[in-house]
Fold these 3 entries.
Entry 1:
Amino acid sequence: MIIILKPGISKKQESSVLKEIRKRGYRPHVLRGVARTVIGAIGDELTHQSLESLAMAFPQIIESVTPIQKRYRLVSREAHSQNSTVTVGEHQIGGKKFHVMAGPCSVESEKQLMTTAEAVKAAGATILRGGAFKPRTSPYEFQGLGEKGLKLLAKARKETGLSVITELLSEQHAEMVAEYTDIIQIGARNSQNFQLLIAAAKTGKPVLLKRGLSMKIEEWLLAGEYVLSNENPSLMFCERGIRTFETYTRNTLDLSAIPIIKKESHCPIVIDPSQGAGRADLVKAMCKGAVAMGADALLIEVHPNPAEALSDGTQQVSIEIFAELMQELRPLILAAGRE
Ligand code: PEP
Ligand code: MN
């Protein structure tokens, strides 16, 4: 921590601050300038008591207290300088190969899921998405098929060979969801539900952590820390748009999160362009931007008939548009140095 003292502080006042710093387990180093004194307090900021409250304890003496260490540790690139990869079946997410996870917002029926699964596989997707437990804003909207939906996903996996990702909404379903899925999705509305994060981590399945609706990147990284610190090394971050004042889109997809997460963390970053803007007509462009900016994978909503979808109809692309998109992405994936 860096502690800056106010001008004209006496030796006696300085000593009282130094005493308190030592009491909290830090070693103080005093740098006396012409007008000001700066104290460098050496010690592990994550395990020692914080010094930030010192400014309140000594308001006449201390001007500011600035932490140096980051609040997250295991997710940080300092802890692990190489990119980490997440193993899902035979796939490695975060490695050389670029992955596309695609499928309906919600699992609605066997026919809808199987048609979509076969189509996204033929177009080059490696992972099938589909919500069985849906976090709907209104309790009167379609809530998902629950375990029946999970069973359909497992059937689609068996028949197509695709891996599966689905959302875990409640701690009480952790074991059940983990039985059917290859990746557990933690949705935007639950991204700071820490008990749910711990329950997801403890299943041992890879976890895809969406960014919350109004979540700062530091909060997102700290939420990810809950997964890694519960002995689950397989974490992916997923940017899915944040809430802003803009009304042309449902959310504002923050593509700057890609290089920021890459810089701060070793974990893969996935982009969800579907929740990202809430508009199917913008999905292609956002996917291209995400590939160019260094994302490791995409999570895209695809429906055989978006106009009749039971959830998120305006943002799901048709099977035909998805196939076109996959073709259009090819040269960009290669240009980004991926396969
Ligand atoms: C979804 O993927 O369908 C979903 C509900 O996502 P989010 O949690 O990002 O809103
Ligand atoms: Mn959706």
Entry 2:
Amino acid sequence: MLVLMNVQATPAQVANVIKHVRERGFEPIELPGADRLAIGVLGSNPGSIRDAICDLPGVVDAIPVSKPYKQVTREWHPEPTVVDVSGVNVGDGSFVVIAGPCAVESREQVLTTARDVADAGATMFRGGAFKPRSSPYSFRGLGLDGLRHLAEAREVTGLPVVTEVLTPADVELVSEFADMLQVGTRNAQNFALLEAVGGARRPVLLKRGLSNTIEEWLLAAEYVVAHGNPNVVLCERGIRTFEAATRNTLDLSAVPVVKSLSHLPVIVDPSHATGHRPLVPPMARAALAAGADGLMIEVHPDPENALSDGAQSLTPAAFAELMGSLRRLAVALDRQVATAPSPMRAATPG
Ligand code: PEP
Ligand code: MN
């Protein structure tokens, strides 16, 4: 429920509402806004205290939030959220490009790829150190060594790093090395993990679950925010459908739908969505045109011999070409591809 205060309400009146809400067993959250003064009320069935709250001085109205997720709605927070990832702003209108290999395979592979994507103009670097694989016999990542290689790649290029965290027990470790924590599609409804990253000091990149509706995806984001971390970026990466020509079905309409429902930034991963290298550039451009806040693209120096997801990985040359076309398209759309932060700043994540 949202309690709307008179814009001239005094601080004492606001404090009084907060006190009453808390006394009745609900959680009040002050919501500063450009042109309204509101207090959010969280808990089960807040409508039960609506009449009592409406009688308090300074209160204009109390309205229910129409969705099951609350804090991630536009009703709760009308202005778009901008997530600061060690100097890269996601959601500020610019178009952020995260690029790198599916998995960290070796120090050399990571450093080479990081330099290549940085030279091509990527804004952030990606790479999996802990890999969720369908088969237990597939390459599952280098773990701690992989995290160390990623941190070195950040030092060399200045690009903030995002990497996946698979279990609550690893959240602290991954937070020591990465600028942003990725929750993958297979863990998108792992509520223990969502709560754990909700308590982390790093922003979160939340992939859409393999067969999640948009409502389920936003409820997953609500878990993270409700556990204390407001810095969530959503990532559409394709969903399971009957279509077999592509690895998944890229739901690009999710971008404007999510933007209308939520204030959180949303980016698109055309690599996992399509599964095929030639399909990545057209869908990347489509994501820019659809209004996404950015992209996540897999790039490998030798895709034919990649230990995972080679078929969908771009070569560094193809990635550089894609970046050029994105910059040209951005001009036509009155947008800008984001630039990387200065190396000094990114080298020491705050
Ligand atoms: C990834 O980005 O490395 C990954 C495993 O993606 P997803 O969780 O979307 O399959
Ligand atoms: Mn991958």
Entry 3:
Amino acid sequence: MTNQLSPNLDPRVLAGMLSGKHLIDGALVPAASGKTFDVVSPATREAVAKAAYGEKADVDLAVAAAKKAQSSWSKKSARERGKLIAECGRILAGHVEELGRLIALETGKALRTESRVEASVLADAFTFYGGLGSELKGETIPFNPNMLSMTVVEPIGVVGAIIPWNVPLMLMALKIAPAMVAGNAVVVKSAEEAPLAVLRVCQILNTILPPGVFNILSGMGPECGAPLVAHKDVGKVTFTGSVETGKIVYKAAAEKLIPVTLELGGKSPMIVMGDADLERAVDGAVVGMRFTRQGQSCTAASRIFVHESIHDAFVQKLKAKVDAMKMGDPLDESTDIGTIISTQQFEKVQSYIKIGEAEGAVANRCSQKPSDGKLKDGLYVQPVIFTNVKNESRVAREEIFGPVTCVIKFKEFDEAIAAANDTEYGLAASIWTTNLKWALDATRRIDAGLVQVNQNLVVQPGMSYGGFRASGLGKEASLEAMLEHFTRKKMVMVNLQ
Ligand code: NAI
Ligand code: MG
């Protein structure tokens, strides 16, 4: 019989093994109440496992375990913690295939284009942060020669991490790897739609981390996430999800006066000037809009401003590219585009397509839904490229979080910049041009936390990632994110006289 921790490439078997459990204090355990909820694969809408239905009692157990473990974890040297986190990265790299398959099963994201890639970014994030232990350093302040004055960087204690379902492995890694290197213990509340792959990661890593340093709970937001945020021993909350829930989390954290990082929504503009390399810009729109992730990305290029001189050619080429992408079984290697995560999101996306049409936009539907009998009930939505859209319309202002982008015509550079900034969000943006002045001017004038020129790369470890205004607070993914968000600074002054 194979060891339960050796990679298992059958995601249904793995899902069964993890069914109905949290991971608290190093052990897989059921919910205190014994309650569970179904984990549904959106490609077939079959229940593939149960998840433990976490509530306050489970939160109390997990936070107590984390608090106890944190005391000895924080006493290890920072380099030693870093080495263990880097070792986590090495071990996870050996599980990329199984984690990719499991995430494809539970989220409906295609294995080749999305899920396997996400699993390798997870491993990479641990490797990246594992090398940063010795950066947890303070400064000395030269007040006078008879006094040693210095700042010391300390962990906060127990960190509560609340994650969404769209890229759960990567988003979890970007929160917990820096938190743990900095000497904190973590309690993760997984998204109700995608509790399995992150639980598997926790199970794997608990073979080398001391019990209680990394705990994970599954459950609903109000019943499991809210008590985690409110728990008196949670000293920091890091959250990714909707603006609406982000505000609830922020208010609850304010009651305890604890720091919060919020990574919220977006309606990211992409500006394509008339002189842009058209082929590259079209490819950039496909990547930027995350069509392979069914557009379920907070940085999705969901407002594409295209200069009137190339508008029609751009739309035609973009449609042809997306038409050529294959929608199908997420676990099939030939599939480019999988499914929407849940019925709730499916209905939200459908309703926005109707709203756009009612507002007068033209919905150019792309690609084809799979006709295979097994997948006919799957949550497939044909990608939509809206043309004839006004920047004031709801489909151009509100986050759809589906494979729906808006192409908007413009005449002048200044007009495009103003339209790009006319949004409550400020997460990401890109400009496509061969004119250096326009490119640099746009990087200065666009009001967003990430501005790219002639590319639309996804988040990667090392970059300073985070939005302005309604898109959130704080940064993730970088060294600075670890130092600013998962530590506190103590001033120490020693009289030497
Ligand atoms: P959500 O923000 O409600 O859920 C995100 C996480 O917060 C989940 O783990 C959820 O259980 C938890 N949560 C919910 N209510 C909570 C509460 N009162 N206290 C503590 N935790 C709570 O997002 P949802 O419902 O999954 O999706 C709704 C919309 O949010 C999407 O259509 C999309 O527009 C946006 N969204 C944005 C994401 C991003 O990457 N910025 C990710 C997921 C959703
Ligand atoms: Mg919600």
